[in-house]
Specification:
The complex is a heterodimer of chains A (330) and B (279). With 330 residues, chain A is an alpha/beta fold. Chain A has two domains: 217 residues, no CATH class; 63 residues. In chain A, 36% of the residues are buried. Helix content of chain B is 74%, strand content 0%. In chain B, helix 10 packs antiparallel against helix 11 and helix 10 runs parallel beside helix 12. The radius of gyration of chain B is 49 Å and the shape is elongated. The chains are: A alpha/beta (330), B mainly alpha (279). The interface between A and B is large, with 46 and 39 residues.
């Protein structure tokens, strides 16, 4: 359902006007081409970002910092081309860029952004600040140096990088060609995905614990051999050989299934049945081994519900938690 | 007129090359100055002595040497070397053939030049009219191959780090991850991502993808060279795991440097020390 673009943004502005003590008017900027891929880029040196996706065609920013448009003139006829505390919002080639702090020094700035749901986001905060993103179906790429990252109801790919801050992410859907990747130096990473997601998971932590509430039959993992001292070459080799044999057996089984299906189709064709051949499922490629840890960390790799989207979580000093979201219409 | 100047002009005075207006002052000075008179007398005595010296006679051997030289030259003239003979023959041949008068020589040169120009204009092939033809199948196949190569080069450029958003770069690395047998180009792309990608996530994934090819020396060397430049502790620890799992003894010095560098994260230093213990 697509409402007229003006109404939801007006609503959003009205809501924001109550929510934030906005010193400046909310600023809207449209994308040049509504049908081409839309990208929203934000570089905030010191501040907070709150992004929400809705049914709209324009990017609306509500902030307590003034927007600078170096082309417009003030009442006294002067243009502001360098200000002490201001952000810039520009659009070029369907990329809307919000830039705060790179133009000059500025204090802490809070930004409330509303934009179309399937926008691709590229966000970066250097100092301070929480980052909140919700209801976005496009790919999300976030770099936050010191601050919490909280993602809700995402529907696309995600690459999240944090230095000192928790990452909490929940996904409405996980698609096969939209990989998810989270890295954090000092901070917990909590990811919630639908219970029926198929994923290849790779978890890596140096000083943390890896926890999940998926069952063992849903999430089949193996812990990479990790020793702090004196590795035993022979046992590693035999383990590797066992893994290779397992993968080979799996492939052989899948090939046998394909052959059976093909034979069935050939027989049906010969007898003239109206047999609709099922599309052959491509055999799953053997999963490459993960780098084992010899330096005291933990590496776990596995397949969730048979394997699919790539899900990678890596931390240094923080726990990894993988939760499942039970669907409501069960 | 001082005595030094007078004495310097004695020689010229003696030989008579002094101008007239200068000889009179010298004569006047000489009449009065005792020192100059003495100098003049010394000069005259020196000249007289020089005149009396006998002229040196040439030694008797000079005559003998001269006669020998003369005989040699005469012998050469009578029996010239083959080279000289050939040269003289050539010279006389050409002298007979060509005129020796400069004007005629010049005229002949001009004639030759004009003749050459005319002959070239007549003999050179005319440029053929350009005919556009369809290339034959072999050429077409070559063209198709070249186009495919250019396309793959384009793709290589398109996966260039700074032009693609992070999610696309990650997808590219994951595609290489899932290939069963990567060719050199894929490995080079992975090493490139490992060394230069701005996103920690992409670098980590590239490293994990490269682990499947840890037995190949170029891969190990690539990871080794990226290790000292890596800044993210997560990727550093993963690289340490990589080189230890590869049993790469050459990583020893690099791990040692990491373990001692105070700018490096404490966890990474500890990991480097543990890794060293196993190499």
């Amino acid at each position: 359902m697509k409402m007229k673009p003006t109404l939801p943004s007006l609503l959003a502005v009205a809501v924001l006007a109550f929510a934030l003590p906005a010193n400046a008017e909310p600023v809207s900027i449209p994308f040049s081409d509504a049908n081409a891929p839309r990208i929203f880029r934000a570089i905030v040196v010191n501040g907070e970002l709150s992004i929400r996706g809705t049914d709209t065609d324009v990017v609306t920013i509500d902030s307590d910092i003034e927007d600078t448009d170096s082309r417009s003139r003030r009442a006294d006829g002067l243009r502001v081309i360098g200000s002490s505390s201001t952000y810039s919002l520009t659009e070029a080639d369907n990329v809307v860029t919000l830039d705060y702090g790179q133009l000059g020094s500025g204090g802490h700035g809070e930004f409330d952004v509303t934009l179309p749901r399937n926008t691709t986001l590229e966000l970066e905060i250097s100092i301070g600040g929480e980052m909140r993103v919700s209801d976005i179906d496009g790919d999300v790429s976030i770099k936050n140096l010191n601050g919490e990252i909280s993602l809700t109801n995402l529907g696309g790919g995600a690459i999240i990088e944090s230095m000192n801050g928790e990452i909490e992410a929940s996904f409405r859907q996980v698609l096969p060609d939209k990989p998810l990747s989270f890295t954090s130096m000092n901070g917990e990473i909590k990811v919630s995905i639908p219970a029926d997601t198929s994923a290849n998971v790779r978890f890596r932590t140096q000083n943390g614990t890896i926890l999940t509430d998926f069952d063992e039959d849903e999430l089949a993992t193996k812990t990479e051999p990790g020793r702090a001292f004196s590795p035993d070459m022979r046992s590693e080799l035999s383990q590797a050989a066992r893994e290779i044999a397992q993968e080979a057996a799996e492939i052989a089984r899948e090939v046998a299934v394909e052959v059976q299906a093909a034979v069935r189709v050939a027989r049906a064709e010969r007898s003239g049945d109206n047999y609709a051949p099922e599309a052959p499922r491509a055999p799953r490629a053997p999963r490459p081994p993960s780098i084992p840890t010899h330096t005291g960390g933990k590496v776990i790799s596995g397949a969730l519900n048979g394997g699919g989207t790539d899900l990678q979580i890596a931390t240094m000093n923080g726990d990894i938690v993988l939760r499942k979201i039970e669907s409501d219409d069960d | 007129m001082n005595c030094q100047r007078i004495q310097d002009s004695f020689i010229d005075y003696q030989t008579g090359t002094l101008p007239e207006h200068e000889t009179a002052p010298i004569r006047a000075h000489l009449k009065t100055c005792l020192a100059c008179q003495r100098q003049w007398a010394d000069l005259q005595q020196t000249l007289l002595t020089l005149d009396k010296l006998p002229a040196p006679e040439p030694s008797p051997r000079l005559r003998a040497r001269f006669n020998a030289m003369l005989d040699e030259a005469r012998a050469e003239l009578d029996a010239p070397s083959p080279f000289a003979l050939a040269r003289s023959r050539l010279d006389s041949f050409f002298a007979l053939l060509l005129p020796s008068r400069p004007a005629v020589q010049f005229a002949l040169t001009v004639v030759l030049l004009l003749g050459g120009v005319l002959a070239g204009a007549r003999l050179l092939p005319q440029p053929e009219p350009v005919v556009v033809t369809q290339p034959n199948p072999a050429t077409q196949r070559e063209l198709a191959d070249l186009r495919a190569q250019v396309e793959s080069m384009n793709q290589l450029v398109n996966t260039h780090l700074l032009t693609q958003p992070a999610n696309n770069r990650l997808r590219g690395v994951l595609a290489a991850f899932n290939e069963n047998d990567a060719n050199d180009r894929t490995l080079a792309e992975l090493l490139n991502s490992l060394a230069f990608d701005p996103s920690v996530n992409v670098r980590l994934t590239a490293l994990e993808a490269l682990y499947a090819y840890v037995d190949r020396a170029p891969v190990r060397a690539g990871v080794m060279s990226a290790l000292p430049r890596e800044t993210s502790p997560l990727v550093q620890v993963a690289m340490i795991d990589f080189v230890v799992a590869a049993r790469d003894r050459e990583a020893g010095p690099a791990l040692n440097r990491l373990a001692r560098d105070p700018a490096v994260d404490a966890v990474v230093r500890e990991a480097a020390r543990r890794g060293l213990a196993q190499l």
